[in-house]
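Reopening closed ticket. The problem is back. First fold of the pair:
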Amino acid sequence: EFTQELRLNQVADRYNWVVGLYYLREILTQDQNYGLLLDFDRFFGPGAGDGIASRQFADNRQVTDAYAAFGQGEYSLTDTLKAVLGGRFTHERRTFRFRSAIQYQDGGIDSFAPLTQITDATNGLKNSAFSWRAGLNYTPRPRLLFYGTVTTGFKGGDFNGGFLSPDPAQAVIQQQPVLPEKVTTYEVGMKSEFFDRRVTFNVAAFYNDYRNLQLFALVPSPLGPLNVAANARKARTYGADVDLTVRPVRNLTLSAQVGLLDTKLTQFLLVADPSVPDYSGNQLAFSPKFSTFLQGQYTIPLADRQNLDIQLSATHKSRQFLDSSNDPYTTQAGYWTADARVALTIEKLELAGFVRNIGDTYYASAAFNSISPFGYVQPVYAPPRTYGVEARINF
């Protein structure tokens, strides 16, 4: 990956502005090989895996060139009211090559028929878009800000780099690029500090209106469910974020963050594969309705430029779906996790010990319903209780 950004800006009494140019070149390569049911004969007898056990070989290469020109300005309408206006033009060009082949067991375990080519294709796409931001900032007194913004966003079209189905017809569906994603975001909020900066309180409410939201849908295949990159024609999210930080006594900092979120796939029908149900009305994956983060940190001064920091934190997420189907078999119930960290700082050196997931909470970060055809659900569990030490040098 290579990126370069150039900026020019000016700051004056009543206004400031910045303009710039941006370039990105990114090359992604993947080599995805796997075997399926290679020990089938060991359980069901010699030759039982013929035509069933298989090895698939797949590799792809994606090259992205992205260009952008952007600018933003702020102008003080009065001593307390400021207007913000910005824009960005983006152009992206992507090429994608995917090759895959499969060979099935033939003649007993560890013997395979010749490779059968599934796909060898090169696709390309180009996308351009203009996005903008407009807002007002109101500061009735120092350290108190009320704001409102309307922002549009753009995410370029993309390709699915995951495993391909051994069924050539399904593989063609998986290779279709997704359309660019666009969003309009409305947000109002407040940022404040009180009592000589001992209390920081921020709150925001937002509404996001998506067009062609990029996500993954599971489609059936002989290998079990496979991910297909797709677009939800319409989707929306709204919610609120609250952030409170209190410093009740010297060296002690307590903070709490709360998030409320409601999501909906307003219109999502995977027309490329009629075997996938209409998911319109479902919630977005990985979108708990309630989440919170709590943290306490106490610093003990030991000597000149030497401190001992003790930190405890806890995180909670309510029930969430792990895919767009809202399948009850791939749903994660609400859970809490807690972490601890103790760090000794000696000038530029920091030595620390930590424990993550103190309670050894058992929860899935992803899951796949493979009941058809294999009769099981495949969860991907998050790390259990983990201990560690780390050292840092701050220059």
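Second fold of the pair, where the issue appears:
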Amino acid sequence: MTTPPTPADDAVTDARAEAGAVPLGRRLRDPRTLISFVIPILVVALLVVALPGFHVEQLPALIAAANPWWLLAAIAIYYLGFPLRGYRWALLVRGTGFPLSTRDSTEIILISWLVNCVVPAKLGDVYRAYLLRVNYLVSLSTSFGTIVIERVFDLIAIVLMGLVAGYWSFRSGLSPEVQAIFLVGIAVVVLLVAALLIVRNFGRRILDALPIPKRIVSMYDLFEEGIFSVDRRSLPVVIVVTVAIWMTEALRLLFVVEALGFSDIHLGISGAIFVALIASLLTAVPLTPAGLGLVEVGIVGVLTTVYGVDRTEALAIALVDRTISVLSVIVVGGIAYVFSSKTKAGRYRAGLGSEQAGG
């Protein structure tokens, strides 16, 4: 059962609400946001110009020749992932006692992804917890807990699926670069599992042993409730849905490669999974919006270094793939942001509170 929000939690909510209620237009005009866009674009442009093998003048023709049906298939499979993500998050929130619908959770996730695409530091996750709080009065700490455990499932799935796909792709022999990636992936999984075990078994004991205010402990209890919101009955479903979500990411990349029709590239499903999951792992680095710059360099680097893809063709793949996964989200998510009633709930309640205080 979801614990009612505490005064401390409400105080934090007010602070987050003030940050989250800033219109996206103002966020985009913020110098820090502009810098987070411009710098990675300049870095990628400089790399393309400085490194040999890139023929930028060929990119328009390569992209224009793409098969539109394969591109539509890539877009469709990508957006199938959003209701899957919505269903999984709804399961996690329901585990805390609140009956969130898949439709509502999908809408909130799409809007939060818009924020992640235009603002750095993964503020879309903060905004997602904020929308759940102001629309459904679910504790902010609990909301954050469900998002954290969702991210843990994602990272573990990325690593394990990437390992399996990588071993299948490189069963004839692993290059030093691939071995290094595998070692990093294994370390990530071990650290995540260890962190969950520590939180589950010793988190509250550690806090009780420290001179921490009770309101912080209360917020931690709500946060832990969100993290461990998955019960044994729904855990298999969450695992299956998580795998399905990341298969949509891999199939999107595979369909993009098919659309561009490069005859010398034969990734196969295992190669597409490996490259797509490496790219997704880079989006977790909260330095730029949606990993802008890092992901493009990562995709091109893996395709050229590991799979021997021509640099210009690899860059074309990265640009088309990121157009679908970032630019289209800005368009579709922007429409959802403008017309969704959920983005207006916080402002409505703030106005109502001011009227009551004035009255």
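Update: turned out to be a display glitch only; the data is intact. Residues 1-21, 347-359 have pLDDT under 50 and may be disordered. The CA atoms of residues 118 and 224 lie 30 Å apart. Please close again.
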